[in-house]
Each structure stands twice: as C-alpha cells, then as structure tokens.
Amino acid sequence: MLNMKQVNFSFFILLLASLLFSCTRTVTMNRMAPADITVPSYVQRILLVDRTAPQNETVSVIQGILTGEAPFEVKNAAEATLTTIQQELNQSPRFEVIRARERLVGGLFAQTFPTPLTWQQVEGLCDQYQVDAILVLEKFSSDFIVTDKRQMIKKTVGTGKEARQIEVMGVYMEGLASVSAGFRFYDPQSKNIFDQINYDKTNLWSAEAETRLQAAAMLIDKVRATQFVGRMAGASYARRIAPMPITITRSMYEKPRSNFSLAKGSRLAQVGRWEDALETWQQGLSLPHSTKEGGRLAYNLALAYEVLGELEEARYWAGKSFTEYGFKEGRNYAGNLQRRINQDAIVRSQLERN
Predict the structure, then answer these.
(1) 28 within some domain
(2) What is the CATH number of the domain that holds 87?
C-alpha cells in the first residue's frame, strides 16, 4: 500500500509534468525527407511493371490450394502494392511514373527472385513507353493465418443508464497477414540492376466475441488484409527511391504569460504571422527577462526561422538558447536542425536534373 509520502511525490511529478507541457504549444510543418538511395539524375520517367503472372494457370491454382493462396487474391494484393507505389511517388517531384499495361510472367508464389529480364526486354519496354528506367515487382507471395483461443471477454449488457460491462467466456481471434514483395530497378543506360530488394511486411488484427463464428465475422477478411500489407510494402519502396513529404512537429513556448513578448509572439505565430512573431521575440530579448524566459525567447526565435526556411539562422538561435541561457531543449533542437540541414542537402542532390 502506498504511504502518504509516496502519494505526495507522485502527485508532485504529475503536477510538474502538467505545468511543463502546458507551457508549450505544438507546431507542425511539412518538409521533404530524403530517399534511402539516390537514383541517377538522368532517370526522370520510370515504368512500373508487374512481373507476377503465373507461367501456368493450372499449376498456379494447384499451388494456391496447397499454400492457401488463391491466385486472384495474390494478384489483387500485388496490384495494391503497385498502385500504392504509383500513388506515393506521385506525391514526390522526383519521378514521372507510368504503369505498364502488360503483366509479365515471373515470380507468383516465389520465394526467390526469378532470372532478371534481358536488357533487350528492358530496352524494348523503355522504347515502347518512352521511359528512362523500369521498376519491376519481380516476386510476390502473401499469407493470412488465423488463430483463436477461448478466454474471458467483456460484454455490455443493458441499455442507457442501465448499461454495464460483465465478463463472459468467449473467443479471442487473431489474423496475421504477411506479404513478401521483391523489386528490381533496371537502368538501361548503364545496363545495371540499380536496386534489388525484398520487403517482408506483416500486420496483426484481432476480434473477440462469444462464439467463433461471431469473432470470425468481426475479423478483417483475407483479401483486405493482404491488400493492406501489400500497400505497406509499396509505400516502403516508394520512400526508398524518392524524397517524400513528411510532417514534423516542434514545440513553441508561450509562458510565462507575464512575459508580454513570449505571449504576444505566440499569438502572432498561431495566426501565421511568423515574421511579426519573430520581431516580437527579438524585442523581448532586449527587454528585462529572466534566464528561463531568455532561453524560451531564443528557442522560439529558432522555431520562427525554421518555419520561414532559414535553417542556419534557426540552428544559431537554438544553440544560443542553450549556450547563453542554459536551456537544455535548445541543445536538442540545435541537433535536430543540424540533421535537417544535412538531410535537406541530400534531398536537393536527389532532386537535381541533368
């Protein structure tokens, strides 16, 4: 049992955390995150190709029966993967993306990559679609495993004000979807398979009910589950080859409200008047202020400069909030800004055109 000292200490920690977080307001902004790899700048138009058509339809049906993967289900999941790649890449200025009309024979149900396309095939597709390179989904397989067990579950009985929860014996069911998707990126100019990678993605769903039939009806079905995980694989590959927009969050200090400059600058920033907010916080540093207030003013100046796109100036003020005022959050912010400066340089190089 907790004694009074422990209770008071726990209350003090909660109060301190509440006061700390109530001093800040969250600010969101968009930026470009660099791709995992840098594709040659002469590659501007790419063709997406589905190479998961079965060599023999009859054999593929038999394989599907043995593995529990119907060919049409795998095809739908593969289609979801490629569609997501195209949708994600369309959010980036890096490539113009074309979808091939044909579906090539390749690695349906395959665990290993098929023999690469010949350069004659690659060049033929590039000429046909007027593209610089082709991105191929070479192999694809999916699975959905359902397990269940009997256990106590919560059930609501009664209605309105009389509603309450009780525990009854029921069925807890889980569905684990998995996808294995292999990609190759063919560069005909250098006659090089620029990239080859396999993604294994999984996701877990659950449902519970009084009977197995009810739980199964509540659980996601296999087709939607494998399509969902296929989209995860597609999004991952898009981020691998193209800079992508992301949302980042920062903190802005608006208290103590007794500091007029902190409070007014925060209000200006909330309505998008960042230049005015910056000027207000700068003026605040020239007025009498405590060490803590100075650190927060300098930190907010760094935030304003970042929002306005002046990252070096932002890094300077974040660092100053720590070096001049001992504000530890400024040290962390300066590190984050340096990483962003480095990443932005990579993004610029990845978006260069010949």
Answers:
(1) no
(2) 3.30.160.150
